[in-house]
Specification:
single chain, alpha/beta, 3-stranded antiparallel β-sheet, 3 helices, 10 strands, binds inosinic acid, binds magnesium ion
């Protein structure tokens, strides 16, 4: 484990087991509409890539992917109050069963933004799945349909989550403590 990361919060085995459960639950909710039903997963880049890669292999459904990219302010480790869409948003979601997938629900502004834009297209159903939800941080009005793990208010990296773009490749999820020169500084926090 790189030195900055002081403890492991979730191991790759724990994550894999939980994703198997989530997959079974989501598949149960989405299946049953017949072959004409369109199921579209909308992963939010970049943090969700590892999670969604594992999740879709636990979903034995006929589904497609439409990626969306949301950026916070460049150069900062995290901040999403000013969540901003980058690039194209899928435009063909009318009548589809849509599942938005993200790595972590922190303030909720990112997911609220993406959800609102997709809701305008009148999908047949619209659900939200996050791997992690951070305690006591949510500001936006959004209730995720699926949550992998409830975690304490700590800055986490690994399994797709980054600090300044690094550590996404770590198989476990670890904590970077709020001290020292690399202190992750979320937007709007003292
Ligand atoms: P929200 O809009 O505040 O809910 O933040 C969501 C985004 O902020 C996530 O998709 C992550 O990219 C980033 N983020 C929030 N907390 C963390 C963290 O602890 N580690 C890494 N990224 C985080
Ligand atoms: Mg993200």
């Amino acid at each position: 484990m790189p030195g900055e990361i002081t403890r492991t919060l979730l191991t790759s085995d724990q994550i894999a087991r939980r994703i198997a459960e989530l997959g079974a639950e989501i598949a149960g909710d989405l299946e049953g509409g017949g072959a004409s039903q369109r199921i579209v997963l909308v992963p939010i880049l970049t943090g969700s890539i590892v999670f969604v890669a594992d999740l879709i292999r636990r979903l034995p459904l006929r589904l497609s992917l439409e990626l969306v990219a949301v950026s916070s302010y460049p150069g900062q480790a995290m901040t999403s109050k000013g969540a901003r869409l980058r690039g194209e948003i899928p435009t063909n979601l009318s009548g589809a069963h849509v599942l938005i997938v993200d790595d972590i629900l922190d303030t909720g502004h990112t997911l609220a933004l993406v959800r609102a834009i997709i809701a305008e297209q009148k999908p047949a159903s619209l659900r939200v799945c996050v791997l992690l939800r951070k305690a006591g941080r949510q500001e936006a009005d959004l209730t995720p349909d699926y949550v992998g793990f409830e975690i304490p208010d700590a800055f986490v990296v690994g399994y797709g989550l980054d600090h300044d773009g690094y550590y996404r490749n770590l198989p476990d999820i670890g904590v970077i403590p709020p001290a020292g020169p690399h202190r992750p500084q979320p937007e709007g926090r003292p």
